[in-house]
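[agent] plan:
  1. take the single chain provided in the ticket
  2. run structure prediction with default settings
  3. attach C-alpha cells to the ticket
  4. add a short note for the reviewer (M.T.)
[agent] executing step 1
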Amino acid sequence: MLRYLAWSAAGLVALLAVGGVLAYLFRGELIAYMVNPGEPFAAFTPPPAPDYETPEAWAALPGRDDTADLSPPGMSPRVADDAASVDVFYIHPTTYLTSDGWNAAINKEEPRYIIDNAVMAHQASAFNLAGRIYAPLYRQAGIYAFMEPWAELDDPQGPLALDLAYQDIARAFETYIRLHNNGRPFILAAHSQGALHLIRLMQDYLKRPDLKARLVAAYPLGMSMPVHLFDDLLAHVPPCTEPDQIGCLVSFNSFGPDGNPTVWFEQQRIWEGNELIPVAGRPLNCTNPLSWKADGEVAEPDLNKGAIPYAAAMADELPVTSLADPQMLDISVQCRDGIAYMDRLPPDEFGELVFENEDYHVYDYNLFYGSIRDNAALRAAAYIALQ
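[agent] step 2 finished; step 3 output follows
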C-alpha cells in the first residue's frame, strides 16, 4: 500500500493521518501554494452535509465488517459487538491534502481510502478490546487550514473550515447519543485534527451530567492540551493520573530523544470554546503512554505491550485485511514540558514517516498500540465494576 500512496505526494502524506504538524514539515511556499484553495471560505461551496442516520456516514459501525474490527496477531481479539458493555466514539485525523477546497466530501476517494486502510485499521482498532466502535466520517478541513499563516492574518480562513468540520462532529455525536447509545458508557478517542475537535466536543457536551456520568475516558492523542482548560472549560474532565482512573483525559505527543517541538508548538491552535487559541507558551498536559501517569517519571520499556507498524509498509495487500505482528520495543518514555520523549529512536519500521525534529506524530498510536489497547480495556472494566 505504501507504493500505492507514493504515486503522489498527497497520497503519501494522507497515509500519515496528520493534522497541523504538516505545517512545518512542508514549510515551503510552493507546497503552501499547491494546497491553498485559492479563494476565501465564503466563496467555497461545502460538500453536502453527512446524514448520520445512514450507515454511509460512518467509517466504522457495530454489526458491520470494517477495518476497525482488526486485531494484531498475538493480542487479545476484539470484544464482539453484541457482547460489549462500552461504546467507543472515534474521530479520525486529517487525510485530505489538496487545493480542491477548504473541506472534503466524506467519500472523496483518496482521503477515504486512507481512513479505512490506515486510520481505522491502526488507530480506531486499538479500542476494539474495550468496546464497539462508532467512527463518523466528516467534512474534514483540508491541510491548508493548518498551513495558513494564521498568526500573520487579520482574517484567517482556516478556522472557518475547522468550525465546519466540528459542526459535523457535533451532529454525529448527537445522532450517536440519540439513536445508538441507549445510556451506555462510552470512550471518546481521536487523533490530530480529530483530537482538536474532540477537545471542543468535551467542552460543549460533557458538561451535561448525564453524559459526563457515562464517560469512561477520553483519548485526544496527537494534539497539545493546555492545562488551563482543566481549570475552566474542561474542569469536568480532569487529566488521567492513574492507569485505571475513569472520567478523565489522556493526551500526549511522541518525540525522539533529541526532538525539538518548538515549531510544533508555534503552529498549533486549540479550541477554547468556539475560538482557536495558540498553544505556544502555555503549560501542557502529558500522560505517559506506558505508565499512564502524569508524574514526569520515566516509564520503563517492559510496560510497552506491543507496537505495530503500518501493515501497508509490509505488503501490497489492498485493502488491508490484517495487521502486522506486534513488536516489543526497548524504549522508555518520559513526559517533559508536555511532550512524551522516548529515550531512543524506534526501529526502521517506525521511521519511514517521521517529521523533522524527531517528531513521531504519525506513530502516536502505532508505537504504543498494545498499551493503549490494554489501558482502554482496563478503564472500561473499572467503569463497569463500579456500576
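[agent] step 4 note for reviewer: The chain has eleven helices and 13 strands.
[agent] ticket updated
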